[in-house]
Each structure stands twice: as C-alpha cells, then as structure tokens.
C-alpha cells in the first residue's frame, strides 16, 4: 500500500478520540482534587452530624470550596482515622464558622490548575486537534488537484500574482531575438516617458502579444522588461485563472487589473495565455463555461482602461493560431511580436550569453557549435552548454573542450550513446548502410557535407551519419531536396547492392518514411512536380487543439491518384540513380567500410582524404536536373 499522510491521519483519528477520553477522565480530575486518597464518600448532612459529634479531626478544602477531604475517627469508622470525601454545597459560609467553633484544623487548597491558560488549553485541546487534522486533510486534497479545499481560496488571488520588480534579468541576457527586443525597448520608453508620445497624439499600445515556439525566450524577455523598466511587474500564468469553480477566474482577472491600475505605470504579464484565451465555442467537447467567462472578463478589462493609463499588458503563447480572434483585434493586443527559433547569428549570440559564466577551452569555436545546431531554441542551447559543463566536470577536466560539446550535441539530437556492436554480419551491414548515406551525401553537389559517420549506436539508431549545413537554409531548392532524398536512400541502396535484394533489413524504415514525406511535400506543397504549381495540402496541424477540424486536402480523387504516382516516380527515380552511384564506386565503399569497422567513426577530413585517394566516378548534375 502506498503511504500517505491522509490515510495515516484517518486511521489515527480513533486513537486521538481515545486519548481525549483518557485525558478527560483521569488527568483533569487529579489536577483538581487528590481523589486517590479518599475513596469513601460521605453526604454533607452526615458530615455536619460528624462535626457535632466531634469526630472530625481535620478538613482539607479543595476545588474552590466544592469538595472537602476530611479526616475523621469514630465508632462508625471502626475507630480508625479515615480520609473521606464530601461534596460541599455552594454558599455554605457558616460551615467555616462551625468548624472553627469546633476547633477543627481547616486547610484550603488552591486549584492545582492555577494557570487559567492551562485550563483553556485543556478544554480546547481536542477540538483544536480535530480542526487541525481536518484542515490538514483539506490542504492535502487541495494540492492533489481538486477538492473542497479550494473553496477556502475562493476569489482570493493575492498570492497568485507576484509583483516582482527585480528579476535580475536585463536585455543583454536575451540574445538572438533582436526584433522582439527592439519592440520591448520601445515599450520601456512608453513607460518611462509617456509624455513624449501623448504630446503628439500617439496612443500607447495596451497590449503586446509574444508568439513563438517553446524555449525561444518569451518568458525571459518579459522578465528582462521588468528588470529594465523599473516599474511594478505583475506576473501570472494563464493556467492560474482556470479553476474548478465557475467565476473564480473572472474574479481573479478583475482583481489583477484593479491592482495594476492602482500601481500604474506598470506591466502585467500573462504567461501561456492560450490556457484562457482559446477560441470560444470550439474544441472537442464543446465550450468551457469557466474559461469563456474568464476570457470575457479579460476582454472587458482590456477595453476598460484607456491606452494612456500606463498599464501595458504583455502576454506570451506558443499557439497564436488557437487564440480567440477578439483578443487579437487592435485595441487589445495591438502588437504581435514573433519570437522564432534563432538563425545562425542568433545561435551564436545566445551561445555567447550562456558561455559567459562557463570555462571554455581556448580552442573551442562557438561558431562551429552554432553551425552544428540548426533548429535549436535558446533553451536547447542553454541546455547544451550545461550538459557539456556537467560532462567536463565528470571527466575531471578544467575547461569545456570541443569533444564534450560534440558529445552533448549528439546526445541532445540523437539520444544516449549505446555500446558498440560486436564485429559480425550485422555490424558490416550497418557499416555499408551508413557509408552509403555518407558517400552519396558527399558526392552530390547540392548536399550538405558530412560531419562524421559512426557505428556507435545512439538512441534508436544503430549507426549514424551526421551532416552539417553550410549555412542557414530558410529557402531550400528542388535540387537540394532531391539530393537529400538520394542521400537518405543511400543506406538501403548500399544494402541492396552489396548483400542482395533479399538481405535488406528493416533498419531503413525511418529513412523511407523521411523520403516519402519529402517527396510528397514536393508534390503537394511546393509545386515541384509535373502536376504543376499547386498547393494541394497544407502543413499538418494538430486536430485536437486547433480551429480547423476540416480535412485539409482539397482535391479530387483523380488528383489524388496523380499525386501518388508522382511521389512514386520521384522516389523510384532517385533510388535507381543511387544504386548506380553505389555500383560505380564499389571499391571506394569497401575501403570506407573497412576503415569504419576498424575505427568506429570516420570524420569529414578522413572521409574526404580517402575519397580523394580513389578514382571516383563523378555524379552528373544532370541526374538531378532530369527529375
Ligand atoms: P519560453 O519562450 O518558452 O517562455 P523561456 O523564456 O522560458 O522560453 O526560456 C527558457 C530558458 O532558455 C531561459 O531561461 C534562457 O536560459 C534560455 N533562453 C531562451 N531563449 C533565449 C535567448 N533568446 N537568449 C538567451 N537565453 C535564452
Ligand atoms: Mg514561457
Ligand atoms: Zn539510414
């Protein structure tokens, strides 16, 4: 069974009840009267008679005059001195007189529980314990996600948004997103010198929406603006608006803007706004009442203040496409700033920022790392340098060198390194497969150069061929795509040529997937086939979260057949050409495979050197132009 505080408490409740009764029954009376020495009792009337008879020797009064322990001796008591307990009625002042007249020793004992506080604690002990236990249980169930505990924080959002003036982050910490930075510097100017804008009749924008993929520095930018503008900064995450109870989100929005207006000029930052700002009335399963109310409140609030009150709302999302259109219209988030995955220069700048506090070897070229990491976001790059630093520390080295950086890049892209295969047929087959990729990639003019070929497994792959793009390619030509298709087919083609048609393996399945997808996109998206320059399919989008649920293919069955035919043509043509290149260069391939099996890894230098030593049958560029 899983241990949990909740079950422990539930099970221990009966125990507390028992403890309580023991407490009430034993502990409390003994603090008041020494009852253990007076087991026998006597009525008040009999006591008075005893006084008259002169049988009483001593009276001890306890309990504020409610109880007396008497020492008596008499024939009824067997002529022995006995201690007897007597309950005294309230208001019997003449008793004392009577006792004094009979010359009996009287002694009054104050309550043992002198401290009234102690008394209070005694009486409150159990209720407090019970309430405390219950509150504890509620809190536990609350943090588990739902439950009645949330009722306690109803509409109270004070703790949820923070006013942080000092994030410790400045614009210099954000690199590679220059347009967004410019935009934000402008916002800082709005806040610092609003007059220069209002003087010429300009309206200060109310909202700036930051859009971009995860890890590109949106939250970082918002923190930097807080650090630079020196104004109060209210930060809340969109998901914090969404609560179990309908209306809580809306009241939180109201609360937030009220606070903001009191503190103007200031910045309100709503991170991950898609949590509330999603298109209303769509999505599978119908609309969400609570979210709609929250969004409506947000819209109302944003309309409710004038542009010049000094409140600027910044929101961030990575899904601008699913945001409600009403949020995006001018007058709310007037400005949209796109923060995209950085290009080569951007990566270089980000790497420099994060390398500042790290010890790097002198021969490390940040340029090379930036080149090797196309598609990495700012967060990926920060992670990369950190991984390399960890690896360096593990190797007990003084500074991060290129080998740790390389290993970290490989690991982030392709996964953990596995143990190399033992020499054998399958290792040979994998070697031919990888050399196939590498050789075709090298021989084709339009292809990126090979960085290295390796037989050390990583992640799912048993062997890998790494290519480095020469420069950032935002526009890719038809010839380049065809070269990629051919290089990707090189692995399977090598298996076929060397081991025969029946010996090919499943290892190429991932390659074939990529090839088919590339070929299909050439036909349906880029107009690179004989069907003509038509856009027949749009980029795939997730049907679960987005707006459009409609099928995004808009063509007839006839066109569908043509598409399939074209895709098949492209792939088969490329395949045939690759087979020919491999057959033409068989001697070179055998040599490369021998080296690869012996050394496990061939780098670009070694590869080019070996190729230059052999007579290579050149690949005609017409191969590609014919397609
Ligand atoms: P998101 O866009 O998802 O909000 P974050 O701003 O949270 O991304 O970025 C996460 C981390 O990645 C940052 O704390 C920072 O270390 C790093 N990072 C991301 N983008 C940049 C950038 N442009 N410049 C410097 N560091 C960045
Ligand atoms: Mg973020
Ligand atoms: Zn392959």
TrEMBL record:
<comment type="subunit">
    <text>Homohexamer.</text>
</comment>
<feature type="binding site">
    <location>
        <position position="437"/>
    </location>
    <ligand>
        <name>Zn(2+)</name>
    </ligand>
</feature>
<dbReference type="GO" id="GO:0008270">
    <property type="term" value="F:zinc ion binding"/>
</dbReference>
<feature type="binding site">
    <location>
        <position position="511"/>
    </location>
    <ligand>
        <name>Zn(2+)</name>
    </ligand>
</feature>
<keyword id="KW-0862">Zinc</keyword>
<keyword id="KW-1133">Transmembrane helix</keyword>
<comment type="similarity">
    <text>In the central section; belongs to the AAA ATPase family.</text>
</comment>
<dbReference type="GO" id="GO:0016887">
    <property type="term" value="F:ATP hydrolysis activity"/>
</dbReference>
<feature type="binding site">
    <location>
        <position position="433"/>
    </location>
    <ligand>
        <name>Zn(2+)</name>
    </ligand>
</feature>
<dbReference type="GO" id="GO:0004222">
    <property type="term" value="F:metalloendopeptidase activity"/>
</dbReference>
<keyword id="KW-0479">Metal-binding</keyword>
<dbReference type="Pfam" id="PF06480">
    <property type="entry name" value="FtsH_ext"/>
</dbReference>
<keyword id="KW-0150">Chloroplast</keyword>
<dbReference type="InterPro" id="IPR005936">
    <property type="entry name" value="FtsH"/>
</dbReference>
<feature type="transmembrane region" description="Helical">
    <location>
        <begin position="7"/>
        <end position="26"/>
    </location>
</feature>
<comment type="similarity">
    <text>In the N-terminal section; belongs to the AAA ATPase family.</text>
</comment>
<feature type="domain" description="AAA+ ATPase">
    <location>
        <begin position="204"/>
        <end position="343"/>
    </location>
</feature>
<dbReference type="GO" id="GO:0004176">
    <property type="term" value="F:ATP-dependent peptidase activity"/>
</dbReference>
<feature type="transmembrane region" description="Helical">
    <location>
        <begin position="120"/>
        <end position="138"/>
    </location>
</feature>
<comment type="function">
    <text>Acts as a processive, ATP-dependent zinc metallopeptidase.</text>
</comment>
<keyword id="KW-0934">Plastid</keyword>
<keyword id="KW-0793">Thylakoid</keyword>
<dbReference type="Pfam" id="PF17862">
    <property type="entry name" value="AAA_lid_3"/>
</dbReference>
<dbReference type="GO" id="GO:0005524">
    <property type="term" value="F:ATP binding"/>
</dbReference>
<dbReference type="GO" id="GO:0006508">
    <property type="term" value="P:proteolysis"/>
</dbReference>
<dbReference type="InterPro" id="IPR003960">
    <property type="entry name" value="ATPase_AAA_CS"/>
</dbReference>
<feature type="active site">
    <location>
        <position position="434"/>
    </location>
</feature>
<dbReference type="InterPro" id="IPR037219">
    <property type="entry name" value="Peptidase_M41-like"/>
</dbReference>
<dbReference type="GO" id="GO:0009535">
    <property type="term" value="C:chloroplast thylakoid membrane"/>
</dbReference>
<feature type="binding site">
    <location>
        <begin position="212"/>
        <end position="219"/>
    </location>
    <ligand>
        <name>ATP</name>
    </ligand>
</feature>
<dbReference type="InterPro" id="IPR011546">
    <property type="entry name" value="Pept_M41_FtsH_extracell"/>
</dbReference>
<keyword id="KW-0482">Metalloprotease</keyword>
<dbReference type="InterPro" id="IPR000642">
    <property type="entry name" value="Peptidase_M41"/>
</dbReference>
<dbReference type="InterPro" id="IPR027417">
    <property type="entry name" value="P-loop_NTPase"/>
</dbReference>
<protein>
    <recommendedName>
        <fullName>ATP-dependent zinc metalloprotease FtsH</fullName>
        <ecNumber>3.4.24.-</ecNumber>
    </recommendedName>
</protein>
<dbReference type="Pfam" id="PF00004">
    <property type="entry name" value="AAA"/>
</dbReference>
<dbReference type="InterPro" id="IPR003959">
    <property type="entry name" value="ATPase_AAA_core"/>
</dbReference>
<keyword id="KW-0812">Transmembrane</keyword>
<dbReference type="InterPro" id="IPR041569">
    <property type="entry name" value="AAA_lid_3"/>
</dbReference>
<keyword id="KW-0645">Protease</keyword>
<keyword id="KW-0067">ATP-binding</keyword>
<keyword id="KW-0378">Hydrolase</keyword>
